[in-house]
Amino acid sequence: MVWIEGVEGAHPVRVMLGITDGTRTEVVSGGLNEGDFAIVDESGGGPKGPGGPGGPPGGMRMRMF
């Protein structure tokens, strides 16, 4: 299950994963579409504000598929 950022907020999408090298993981099937923004991490209760180096505001990282 991955979370996708949509117009109305984040929602879960079921996926089937394939092989991984520990850094990258193959998505074999599921509800991901090209252009979807998947939430791949969450901030752990730290201070709110800029996401730090290389990240979006609020500390939440997203990956485009």
TrEMBL record:
Residues 43-52 have a biased composition (Gly residues). Residues 39-65 are annotated as: Disordered. This is Uncharacterized protein. It comes from Vulgatibacter incomptus.
